[in-house]
């Protein structure tokens, strides 16, 4: 519908924000793992997310 305003996936950042702590709900973990698989885990500041590294 607004194709002129569609974000460029190569340059548009995507952030997953969740509460800190040792427990991450399975549904949240599943969504974040899907996003990492789909869009990649590389970040500008540390080379990848904690979940991508298995933390």
Helix/strand class: mainly alpha
The total of helices stands at 1
What is the arithmetic mean of pLDDT? 75
Please tell me what the overall shape is. Answer: elongated
* Distance between the first and last residues' Cα: 40 Å
> In this structure, how is the largest beta sheet organized?
none
Secondary-structure element series: H
| Rg from Cα | 13 Å
Number of strands: 0
Determine the fraction of residues in helical runs and give it as a percent range.
Answer: 25-40%
Low-pLDDT parts are none
**How big a fraction of the residues is strand?**
under 5%
In short:
With 55 residues, the protein is mainly alpha-helical. The chain has one helix and no strands. It has a domain at 25-55.
How would you describe this protein?
The structure is a single chain. By secondary structure, the protein is mainly alpha-helical. 25% of the residues lie in helices and 0% in strands. The chain is built from one helix and no strands. The chain has one helix at residues 26-39. The protein is elongated.
């Amino acid at each position: 519908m607004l194709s002129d305003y569609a974000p460029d996936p190569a340059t548009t950042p995507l952030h997953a924000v969740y509460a800190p702590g040792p427990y991450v709900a399975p549904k949240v973990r599943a969504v974040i793992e899907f996003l990492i698989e789909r869009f990649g885990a590389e970040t500008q500041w540390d080379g990848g997310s904690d979940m991508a590294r298995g933390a």
